[in-house]
Amino acid sequence: MKNQKVLFTVQAAMIAAIYVVLVTIFNYWSFGPIQFRIAEALTILPFFTPAAIPGLFVGCLLANILGGAIPADVIFGSIATLIGACGTYALRRYKWLAPVPPIVANTLIVPFVLKFGYGTPEAIPYMFLTVGVGELIVCGIFGMILLFALNRYRHVIFKTN
């Protein structure tokens, strides 16, 4: 039992660290009205392990803080990722639906953060489009590539039965 808790914590911490590193490396694309946050491809990981849920939330929270985001973005952007991760975990039996929750959550939440938190001049429908397309590419395409790449080794990487 103790080993399971340790494994869960280590997996969550590793996922959070990878998320922060990806946002830091691709910082230019990770913030703003046209978002292409490569780290969001990791929102597919709850398909493999529930440890990814807190890992993604903490990773997004830390990345937003370190990236200089305003408090509203830190809170609501991280909540969007948390909602997406929970949704992916809930849909883990349906492989092709796994990327849908993070796409929807971020597309619906992030434009309001950008508009009202940062005062971006773009219209909300435009930001629905730009954030949505970015999420569709990152989660829907890159995330699914990641899912299929990891699926073959899931029992080794995530220590599942």
Task: Write up what this structure looks like.
This protein is mainly alpha-helical. The protein has 7 helices and no strands. The relative contact order is 0.15. The mean pLDDT is 91.
Task: Provide a brief overview of the structure.
This protein has 161 residues and is mainly α. The chain contains seven helices and no strands.
Strand composition percent:
under 5%
Euclidean distance between termini CA atoms: 15 Å
The count of helical stretches stands at 7
Order of helical and strand elements: HHHHHHH
What helical percentage do the residues reach?
A: over 70%
Secondary-structure class: mainly alpha
Overall shape: globular
Average pLDDT, rounded to a whole number, is 91
SSE blueprint and pairings:
Layout: H1 2-25, H2 27-30, H3 52-66, H4 71-90, H5 100-118, H6 124-151, H7 154-157
